[in-house]
Design goal:
two-stranded antiparallel sheet; globular; about 130 residues; about 5% helix; mainly beta
Length: about 130
């Protein structure tokens, strides 16, 4: 991690891969990750941690499977949302988006429980940012 300020725009411009987050910094034991996303991710859940999303560009949808039923939250640019631990969710961005996520270091992008992983989703704990 750099001890210098970092432009999120430059960080996002440094890679093209979709659904493949880059770790831009660490706060205590948490990774701050940015990702470019388009299309659909997969249904998954993180059993032991919440997952924070901030939409930097575009629009993100997060489908949720909750005790009361299924619903989808819509996050326009600038919106934040936290998926509570254990809740199955499926992010999607039909028109593409850039997002920032905040979660414990080592958290897999496909969660602890998930559907089959499609080829377009990178099952990772985040990649170091190389600018």
């Amino acid at each position: 991690m750099s001890s210098e300020p970092l432009s999120l725009g430059q960080a996002l411009a440094s890679f093209d891969a979709l659904w493949s987050p880059r770790i831009v910094t660490r706060v205590n034991d948490y990774d701050v990750r940015v990702a470019k996303v388009e299309g659909e991710h997969l249904w998954h859940a993180h059993d032991d941690t919440d997952e924070f999303f901030l939409v930097l560009e575009g629009e993100l949808r997060i489908a949720l499977r909750e005790p009361a039923g299924e619903r989808t939250v819509l996050l326009p640019q600038g919106a934040v949302f936290t998926v509570p631990r254990g809740v199955e969710h499926k992010p999607s961005a039909p028109s593409g988006a850039a997002i920032l996520m905040f979660e414990p270091a080592g958290t897999p992008t496909v969660g602890d429980r998930h559907d089959d992983i499609p080829d377009h989703v990178d099952a990772t704990t985040g990649h170091p940012l190389t600018t």
